[in-house]
Amino acid sequence: MKKMIVLLAIAFTAVGVNAQQWGVGVKAGWDYGLNIKKYNGATNYEAVMDFHDHGFRVLGLYEWDKELGNGFHLYYGLGANVGVWGKDDDSGFGLGLDGVIGIEWHLPNDIPFTISLDWTPSLELIPSSRFYAKGLGLSVKYVW
Question: How far apart are CA 23 and CA 105, in angstroms?
């Protein structure tokens, strides 16, 4: 919990230095965790730290954004992940490639939140090559 608070404090501090649009939130689904998104208009950057398989991983994603109207946006992109896990006698380090496709709704009337539903399939490269189709998640982010 302390690490989560420190991460959020760093994100909120960064906004004081740079008046660009950011989002910080939580994600739930097959995996659950935190996400931070930097909105740049047609392209965005997103970092996700999620917990799964008795460990955690960090994803970095580059996303293209298409406005659909009424506050809805379609986004898709590519990225990579690194993670560690441990359970009983099985523990290790993982590295992989990720994709993402999702839809995000920027709430109306200047409400500073977004709700998004996305799918982030993953091709794990280390410790062995495997494709993970799971990765459906619902996120709520505070944006400023």
Answer: 13
Average pLDDT score over residue span 119-124: 95
Q: What dihedral angle (degrees, nearest 10) is formed by the CA atoms of 47, 51, 57, 61?
A: -30
Q: How far apart are CA 87 and CA 141, in angstroms?
A: 31
More confident residue, 39 or 15: 39
Q: Are 67 and 52 in contact (CB under 8 A)?
A: no
3-state secondary structure of 58: strand
DSSP state of 127: S
Beta carbons within 10 angstroms of residue 98's beta carbon: 21
| CATH 2.30.40.10 is the classification of domain 2-143 | no
